[in-house]
Amino acid sequence: MKHKEIIDKMTLEEKAALLSGKGEWQTWNLDRLGIPSIYCSDGPHGIRKQAGTGDHLGLNPSLPATCFPTAATVANSWDPELGDKIGQALGQEANTQGVDIVLGPGLNIKRNPLCGRNFEYFSEDPYLAGKMAAGYIRGIQSQGVYACPKHFAVNSQELRRMAMNAVVDERTLREIYLTGFEIAVKEGHAKAIMTSYNQVNGTYANENAHLLTDILRDEWGFDGIVITDWGGSNDHVKGVQAGSDLEMPNPGLDSARQLIKAVKEGRIKESTIDNSVDRMLEAVFELSQEREKIDDKGFKKHNDLAYRAAAESAVLLKNSDNILPLKPDTRVALIGDFAYVPRYQGSGSSVVNATSVEHMNMLINNTTLHVVGCTRGYLRSGGIDAIMEKAAIDLAEQADVVIYCFGLDELSESEGVDRNHMRIPQNQIHLLEELVKVNKNIVGVLSAGSAIEMSWHHCLKGIIHGYLYGQAGARAMLDIITGKINPSGRLNETYPVRYEDTPSLRYFPSVERNSEYREGIFVGYRYYDTANIRVLYPFGYGLSYTNFKYSDLIVNNDGIRITVTNTGDVDGAETIQLYIGKKDAKIFRPDKELKGFKKVFLKAGESRNINIDFDDKTFRYWNIITSKWEVEAGEYQVMVGADCQDIRHTGQINIDGTTTEYPYSKDHMPSYFSGNIQKVSDKEFEELLDRTIPDGKWRGELDVNDAVCQMYYAKSALARFIYKILTNKLKKNEELGKTDLNLLFQYNIPFRAIAKMTGGIVSMEMIDGVMMVVNGHFFKGFGIVITGFFRNRRLNKKYIKKLNSNGGK
After folding, report:
1. What is the mean pLDDT of residues 641-668?
2. Active site (catalytic) residues
3. Which of 317, 551, 777, 808 could bond 802 through an S-S bridge, CB–CB 3.0 to 4.6 Å?
4. What predicted TM-score, i.e. pTM, was given to this entire model?
5. Taking every annotated instance into account, which residue ranges of this chain make up the domain Fibronectin type III-like (predicted)?
């Protein structure tokens, strides 16, 4: 214990208080002992420190900060060093704003394209996600700030995210949903981790000892602090017992009182609390050191870095007839509302108050192009406007090339709500189909944070996907269009032909309480390649204005070596991707899995020998019989290529194995051995789980862990009436094309989280009373709510008085 001397001086009340938040973003300060408060802030792609009253949804304005491209964008760069640079900038701006812990990056797996928060996550592949996250973390923490990767773990949907149980087998948990975090901890050396809202196999992530103690601390050696997501604590006593430390945001002192009571009743040892306090003190004192701040010149450099990140992360998806780059003096028409008001970041808690935002319509006249005009063309909110469409069509007729800016709007993808489909708003596609009738030369500039269906792609000769490209992305798109920048982005996720082709189609998001991960390890390209499903754009795909030749593959026990040559007449960057497969495997496997990559810049005509090393993750799999990582013996295919389907060279290597007991029977698990996992039976899923599928039905009385939206089943007429009011409001917002994050949060919040999110006004005793009301015992329940309110207020005042009076001694 590093801070035993201080801990010995602390009262139990002080210890318990230190493990709960004091405000929306701050921890408790204990002035008697010289323990200051530390400040947390959202910051996956820009610091969001709120200037006024704090709220975790980003509803109130925040201080100006650089808005970098989102994680889903920067992951397309396949460049962890770029992530490191962005992390350094985030750390510097955190210092300038007095932020101690940056709540990010987010590295949950893109299990399904409809997850509303995919724009915050790196990839469908855990290896790429982990490597990119480690880069961010190293950069942030190099500035004396803590990074807090999130959400640990198996958080792949927004629907009822606080009251959902992820049912997943141990092998899939380890290989897909934890590997990225493992890399973030072991290679990025993250000093904080944020737990997710959901349950994992029936136990809330924040009180899951298997996740927090067995894996995170004991196996990975993590010695930092574990923080709940905001309102993500179910039972603070169980959380601390399992290895969680800080409950946020502000549960008042009710949770602290629960800890004290648990110690007195012998349900938790004070030494366990001391361990959490020791970790908190280490963070507090480390983060209380003076750190360097930046000035306007520093923010200018960060804007330049945001531009670089957008430029290196944009993906050239299509370039028919080499329409791009456009030659000087090409007559162009710039069409699309996104050219005027760019879609450059996501919605929800990650919204950044950008220091500046560049607009394509304001920059295009500074290029070498001859601009015949600009027009919006479509309504951002949807619907057809005949006058706007005619103006766009008339303008397109005058141009040699149309630059069409379109994509998903702010309402289409957001924290708090999953998407209903993978389509772009129809009015944008309708305009595109009208434009192509008068001008065949259309270059599309896409803005979206996650995969979309693209049945209209034949209307475009060129497609540049900028994703959500941050505050300086408009300039980067124009520089790619004009050839100042050679695009080098590669997709971090697969683009299926249609949503119906996705592996988790029938299992996403959840049915009532349970989200069943029946697809197992077959996520993204692991499924499409193995099951031979045709895709529109494969994982790792991206075009360049030059060409690269691969030759002379050498495979040895340490890794691979290959020669890459830029055979074109333009300088450019290529990402060499290493995949591993095993054709005669006795355990089921995907056809190939990403196990290494390297991005290299080559001048025209230049050749370079590239080395990619094998590591401890190259050949391993999780054996559920021995409960450890093992290696299957035999011959492996070593594949090197430009994307997961464009494999340029293949070699072989024989590996000595460790497996003596093989965990699966091909006869019992035909879906998993074939990779055709869209219709996994209950029996087969139970074989994978190695246990019975848990009952996830909503039935009987509602309890504190049920969500407000489940009051549909309430016995109380009043509760059902409140449910109808909230549901009608949501429906009206949907009809108007609006997203009300606050309303969504209220609709999906579990009852117990109300006690964690109201600044101490509501206690768990009061929530127990609310549940009685909801379950039809109005007067008894209402009485408990009223008496609980006054008791909670009195106890909070008494507790604060103790904290302020020499620790209560």
Report:
1. 96
2. 229
3. 808
4. 0.95
5. 574-644
Domain 298-491 is found in CATH 3.40.50.1700? yes
771, two tokens: 């549940």
For tokens 């899923």, what's the residue? 685
pLDDT at 350: 82
Domain ranges of the chain: 35-240, 298-491, 541-664, 708-806
**Closest to 548 in 3D by CA, of 521, 577, 573:** 573
Tokens, residue 488:
């080098």
Determine contact, residues 419/350, Cβ cutoff 8 Å.
Answer: no
Q: Residue 403: what residue type? A: I
Q: Is the CATH code 3.20.20.300 the one for domain 35-240?
A: yes
Examine the pLDDT at 749 and tell me if it is beyond 90. no
Handedness of CA 780, 781, 785, 786 (dihedral sign): negative
Name the CATH code of domain 541-664 (choices 2.60.40.10, 1.10.10.350, 3.30.70.660, 3.40.50.800). 2.60.40.10
- Whether residue 707 is predicted with pLDDT greater than 60 in this model: the reply is yes
Q: How far is CA 566 from CA 43, 313, 333, in A?
A: 37, 20, 33
Residue 695 backbone class (left: φ over 0; alpha: ψ -120 to 50; beta: rest): beta
Helix 126-141, helix 179-186: angle, nearest 10: 30
- The dihedral built from the CA positions of residue 73, 78, 82 and 86, taken in this order, carries a sign that is positive
Residue with tokens 């303008």: 395
Contact 135, 179 (CB under 8 A): no
Confidence of residue 520 (pLDDT cuts 50, 70, 90): very high
Question: Is 704 within 8 Å of 754 (Cβ atoms)?
Answer: no
Nearest to 154 by CA among 125, 138, 174, 184: 174
The least confident of 58-62, 314-318, 323-327, 756-760 is 58-62
Neighbours of 734 (CB within 10 A): 14
Q: Are 144 and 91 in contact (CB under 8 A)?
A: yes
> 649: Cβ–Cβ under 8 A, 6 or more apart, which residues?
550, 551, 553, 562, 639, 640, 641
User: How far is Cα 756 from Cα 766, in angstroms, rounded to an integer?
Assistant: 12
Q: How far is CA 808 from the centre of its chain?
A: 43
| Residue 809: predicted pLDDT | 47
> How far, CA to CA in Å, does 327 sit from each of 139, 366, 437, 479, 653?
38, 14, 23, 12, 48
Instruction: For Cα atoms 539, 540, 542, give the angle at the middle one, nearest 5 degrees.
Output: 115
Question: Tens of pLDDT along 217-264?
Answer: 999 999 999 999 999 999 999 999 999 999 999 888 999 999 999 999
pLDDT at residue 738 in the model: 65
Contact at 8 Å (CB) between 364 and 334?
yes
Cβ 51 vs Cβ 98: under 8 Å: no
